[in-house]
Specification:
CATH architecture: 3-Layer(aba) Sandwich
Radius of gyration: 14 Å
Order of helices and strands: EHEEEHEHEEE
Number of helices: 3
Largest sheet: 8 strands, mixed
Strand content: 25-35%
Number of domains: 1
Distance between the termini: 30 Å
Oligomer: single chain
CATH class: Alpha Beta
Length: 147
């Protein structure tokens, strides 16, 4: 298994197809949440993913400051169902935050987290900055990490 971090233009057609397929499977199908998954932000983002023989195991999207928020952001975080519980989510987030802080040299990261993951993100230092609200019928909370 290998980790990859690529700008949009560096992704192969197959990698892009597989990333979008898995994101749709998790966020639209698995969560039974019809919404526009391909939102126009991918070309401006970095794509961090773990692959196993071409299969996307874990993924997150790094959005530089100014794309979604004034601050840098992380989104579309997932670990494929059959790979959950093996520590990939922690490693994925650690790698993403490391890139934002050390390569992009950003000190603030804002996320829109599903509320049930508040404790998970909190373990990395994220603090809630909003009340819980519904986004696409799923409880969310805005969170901020400042280093």
């Amino acid at each position: 298994m290998s980790w990859n971090l690529k700008k949009f233009d560096e992704l192969t057609n197959t990698e892009l197809y597989n990333l979008l397929k898995e994101r749709t499977l998790v966020f639209v199908v698995e969560q039974n949440c019809p919404y526009l998954e391909v939102d126009g932000k991918d070309p401006f983002s970095y794509h961090l993913f773990k692959e196993n023989n071409g299969e996307i195991v874990a993924y997150l999207r790094i959005l530089p400051a100014g794309v979604s928020y004034e601050e840098a952001s992380i989104g579309r975080v997932f670990v494929k169902k059959e790979y959950r519980g093996q520590g990939f989510a922690e490693e994925l987030l650690k790698r993403g935050l490391d890139y934002i802080q050390n390569e992009l040299e950003e000190t603030k990261v804002k996320i829109q987290a599903q509320d049930y993951l508040r404790k998970f993100y909190g373990s990395f230092g994220f603090q809630p900055i909003s009340e819980t609200y519904l986004e696409d019928n799923i409880p969310h909370v805005d969170m901020l990490l400042e280093k």
